[in-house]
User: Which sequence fits this backbone?
């Protein structure tokens, strides 16, 4: 099946918000999603955007029963390694189930790598949930290394009241 | 001991580069550090910087034998969670060994949290090496959660030749 990958625009936020919910459902964390179409519009399409996006589109004749032609997306942002310098972080990569196995996920990821290299980045970083074996296997097959398994990187997070307390110096 | 925390400027890059090497030595990865003072100047002080920095300074009378008064730093950048929206990522947090136990690390981290909240972020994210128990314990004491241990987040990375291949679609 033909498909195309292009930079996401403001008009894609509705479909990206829909697919974020689909991905969260797959990852069993639907109740955790607070991001709305409006948030995406406000956070990704301002002067110093918090993220960038790309979308995968199929021709009209392959649209879904619901009428969707945007069937995949990736969100990314630029980051920094104090060892290696410029890096790109892929926050999300998603392809709708009926459109998997056609190379769309690989093409989206390849595009993020291209954009990163063009911006002078030497690393592509992202996270995956350890029970999500199909994704983990896919990423490993694409030349990625699980640096939690190999060198012991653990992800830490502070949020909610704890973050407020930390900011006040009262943790 | 008195100390102050302030936004890093171009003139701080020499000291930050020095402390990046000190931290890498502690983390036993000195050979991995490619970032130079010049890289920091170029990547952190352009129109859309790849990172932001803050430094901790002590008064002249407490300078080190080598004459340093900049004794700690944190690097951070803004990021995005497709579930929770705006987030801040702390890339590095370091305090020189002779200046630990005085609250400088806590103050640096608190400042990153403040800056994140001020920018509308609801999460502070970072990584720690699992063998670095003193750091891990410190972060947990500050209200952070180890989301690798609790929900199985693994960090993945693609770099070097593998990243080039991924970008070419030939992985």
Assistant:
């Amino acid at each position: 099946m033909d498909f195309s990958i292009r930079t996401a625009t403001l008009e894609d936020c509705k479909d990206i918000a829909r697919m974020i919910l689909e991905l969260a459902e797959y990852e069993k964390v639907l109740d955790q999603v607070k991001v709305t179409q409006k948030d995406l519009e406000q956070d990704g399409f301002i002067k110093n955007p918090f993220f960038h996006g790309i979308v995968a589109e199929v021709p009209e004749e392959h649209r879904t029963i619901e009428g969707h032609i945007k069937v995949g997306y990736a969100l990314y942002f630029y980051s920094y390694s104090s060892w290696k310098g410029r890096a790109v972080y892929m926050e999300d990569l998603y392809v709708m189930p009926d459109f998997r196995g056609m190379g769309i996920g690989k093409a989206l990821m390849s595009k993020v790598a291209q954009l990163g290299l063009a911006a002078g980045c030497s690393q592509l970083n992202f996270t995956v949930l350890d029970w999500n074996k199909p994704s983990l296997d896919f990423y490993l097959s694409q030349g990625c290394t699980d640096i939690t398994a190999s060198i012991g990187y653990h992800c830490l997070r502070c949020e909610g009241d704890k973050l407020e307390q930390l900011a006040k110096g009262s943790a």
